[in-house]
Amino acid sequence: MNDQHRFLEFDVILKRLSDLAVSDGVKAKCLALAPTLDEREAKRRLAETGEARRLLEATGSPPLAAMAELEKLIALIEAGDMLLPEQLERFALFASSCRRMKQYLRRAESTGCDIAFYGGSIRELSGLQSEIERCIRGAQVDDKATGALWDIRRGMQNVADQIKAKLNALLAKNGKWFSDSFVSLRGSHYTLPVRREHKNDVPGDVIEISNSGGTLFIEPAAVVRLQKELASLEVEEDAEVRRVLYTLTALAADALPDIRLNIEAMELLDFLFAKGALSLSMKAACPAIEAGNRLILRAARHPLLDGATAVPLDLALGEGVRGVVVTGPNTGGKTVALKTVGLLSLMAQSGLHVPAAEGSVFPMRDLVLCDIGDGQSIAENLSTFSSHMTNIIGVLAKASPDSLVLLDELGSGTDPAEGMGLAVAILEELCCRGCLFVVTTHYPEVKAFAARREGLENARMAFDRQNLKPLYRLEMGEAGESCAIYIAERLGMPERILKNAEKAAYGAGAPAKAELADFAAQTAPAPRAAASAIVREEAPKPVSTHAQRFAVGDSVLVYPNREIGIVYAPANEKGEVGVQVKRQKKLVSHRRLKLYIAAAELYPDDYDFSIVFATVANRKARHLMGKRHVEDNVAVVKQGQEQANSVEPDD
Fold first, then answer.
1. Distance between CA atoms of 353 and 336, rounded to whole angstroms?
2. CB 253 within 8 Å of CB 77
3. Which of 439-448, 620-629, 640-649 is least confident?
4. Could you tell me if 99 and 125 are in contact, meaning their C-beta atoms sit under 8 angstroms apart?
5. If you count Cβ atoms within 10 Å of the first and of the last residue's Cβ in the chain, which end, N or C, has fewer?
6. Regarding the domain delimited by 545-644, which CATH topology (the fold level of the hierarchy) does it fall under?
7. 3-state secondary structure string, 30-44?
8. How far is CA 285 from the centre of its chain?
């Protein structure tokens, strides 16, 4: 992400978006989201966000899967490793999430949203899920995973019971030999806690000694044979468990193509629903976006401000106005207005909804360039003015007719006369570039220049003079005031000092307003022609004359096989004609068709082509509709088939 986007806090919006995603991969995708330069792609992204929001509103939160470490587990499978029980359980959980997501999307199909039909791309993993759940319980291979494992573990339990019975008998018979009255399991050995002074009374192997040295954990010789039998059974158990795990791993390996497809589908849905959830959380709306130069904000709010208290922003650029010069008192909301314009533009072009009312329009921009904040740097020995100039020089070097430029406090931080001159010259340069721009300033001469210069418009941040409070409302067409002298007067500054201040501020020393436009016109460079980086959406191409020749009912030859077909739908915008060949309907390029017999020679003028193309059930339903209303009577009409008497293509 570039610094321009960070100045506008686009990174904060992306962090909020990533927090709404579930899987780590999608979180990273959210953080990397960037504006697109393709108009069609921007509209597609916005439409998907809108559909995701409608699904959330209609059917609630989706059952998304976290998919934690699935890629690592897939890599282990591909390397031929055996998965452990807890790793296999993650595949079972993923399969369960996929099944529930498929059911969720099936319920959502009634909304008509395209996203709801993404469920068709989610593969069934019920076989893998059921087998893993049958064989593994609580991150352990279940006793009933196989008949052999059941027999082995029953045998182990019987031997263990025999060992415990013998050891308990020793404990009961010679209690004074032992420091405790219970059998202790040390490693895989059943032992008795023998006092040191009685170690010779209990023949056997010392397995462990207590920290104090007073107790020896001895495996009595009386149970050595049973202990060896148990160890042998444990080896058999381990082999059978590994066989089960390898079998389940092989099942997961067989399902990898479907698992990968489901991961891709779930990640896409996770991303879309994160965008929809962000739209809901911000109470945002889908804006219009176009490749023109109109930028219209209606009741827009900065998404990081409290929506209940933020004052809505209305602004219009384009249609003869390329730039807006905003003036008004400090802390009056000028900088917030700049950031709102820039941030919402980035969001809309990235496919995110914006907190603005219906009627808001955003133009496709190749760059959103800004100079906001003082940028003072002690480490780099940059003053406020130097920092501003460095940023503005960089902005002017990149700006094109398709850019949006936002400059805060233009010309500030230096000698007022020179700062004003620079501000006017920079405004003129931006006008010549042909880009859209919004700047803020305090210079009255700059306001006068904006009033005279074609393509510029003044705007002001409203101020309550009575209560000395900013209203944070942008008013187009009016130049504002810094209100410093007025505020000083209301606060009790002596009149003598105020008059001197007015003379100093507006005396004869300032250049005449009429000279500013002449100065800018004389110093302005010729506008540069630059190739646009914006990919504009192409208008539909007209259907070719040859494609229009084919009418519903025409008998045609389909090349190269010279098959005979019947036209069921006229050519679409791509020049594809709907042709039924051997009871199968398909779209065929008009270049592959040749008229065989015209429909006028085959059928009367009022012939009902649904007899040829529609199913019997659909014809009956339509016939019944023509007579009366019948509950639950449905006739299928597919989009684009109305010309063929509303026939539906075969699935």
1. 19
2. yes
3. 640-649
4. yes
5. C
6. SH3 type barrels. (2.30.30)
7. HHCCCCCCEHHHHHH
8. 15
List phi, psi (to 5°) of 26: -75, -35
Q: How far, in Å, CA of 648 to CA of 651, rounded?
A: 9
Nearest-angstrom CA–CA distance, 103 and 97: 10
Where in the chain are the domains?
A: 3-125+255-281, 147-229, 288-523, 545-644
Burial class (CB in 10 A: 0-12, 13-18, 19+), 353: buried
Instruction: Give the tokens for residue 623.
Output: 């016939």
**In degrees to the nearest 10, what's the CA dihedral of 90, 96, 99, 102?**
-70
Please report which confidence band the pLDDT of residue 523 belongs to, taking 50, 70 and 90 as the band edges.
very low
CATH architecture of 3-125+255-281: Orthogonal Bundle (1.10)
E strand or H helix that includes residue 519: helix 513-523
Q: What is the DSSP letter of 514?
A: H
Beta bridge partners of 382: 377
The arrangement of secondary structure in 147-229, i.e. its CATH architecture, is Orthogonal Bundle (1.10)
Gap between the Cα atoms of 46 and 397, Å rounded:
31
Beta bridge partners of 194: 178, 216
Distance between CA atoms of residues 315 and 406, nearest Å: 14
Q: Give me the amino acid identity at 539.
A: A
Asked if 220 contacts 173 with a C-beta cutoff of 8 angstroms, the reply is: no
Evaluated on CA atoms 99, 104, 106, 107, the torsion sign reads positive
Q: What is d(CA 480, CA 95) in angstroms, rounded to the nearest whole number?
A: 62
pLDDT (tens digit per residue) in 255-314: 999 999 999 999 999 999 999 999 999 999 999 999 888 999 999 999 998 878 888 999
Find, among 240, 164, 442, 489, the residue nearest to 329 by Cα.
Answer: 442
Tokens of 283: 């109470």
Instruction: Please report the pLDDT score of residue 517 as a whole number.
Output: 45
